[in-house]
Amino acid sequence: MRQRLANFSLEDVLNLPDDAPRVELRDGVMIVVPSPTFGHQDTANLLWLWFRQNAPKAYRASGAVGVALGSQDSFEPDALLLHAPVEKSNHFFLPSQVVIAVEVVSPGTKRRDRFEKPLEYGLAGIPHYWRIEQDPVHVYAYDLVNRQYELVADSDTELVLSAPFEITLPIRDITP
């Protein structure tokens, strides 16, 4: 009944049992998020590792934690780069704590990762959004301009960016 009323909140998600499925909130509706495939996780984990090894100390890399976009909206990006320090017990981070939100696109998430999520991340003020397409791996990097993302670089060989820090990411480093 509550699902039909669309009145779930972040507090409800935090109160789910430990063995509950992964969920995101969209306008108060819980959306079950299937576990990513091995290849999907491999790409996200390799990016997490690259961030851990290459990002300045002012940032922390994370994966599989939520971003609270409002009391009834949350997403769980595949990888995040956050402003340090980070509270280790957090299940959700505020958009102001997020530097880069990253989504690895799968066949079942194409529409959400290409259209819905960038729109919402942009409206929330997250400064950078990366979309990673698979087979072959290709990274699209966007910067926030006037609450909308503009493509600043894309590559299937080497991603070069000047923000949020000097980045030269060989795509082979995140290719399983």
UniProtKB/TrEMBL annotation:
Q: Which Pfam families match?
A: Uma2 (PF05685)
InterPro entries referenced in this protein's UniProt entry, alphabetically? Nuclease_put_TT1808, Restrct_endonuc-II-like, Uma2
Residue span, Putative restriction endonuclease domain: 11-168
Report what the protein is called: Putative restriction endonuclease domain-containing protein
Origin organism of this chain? Actinoplanes awajinensis subsp. mycoplanecinus
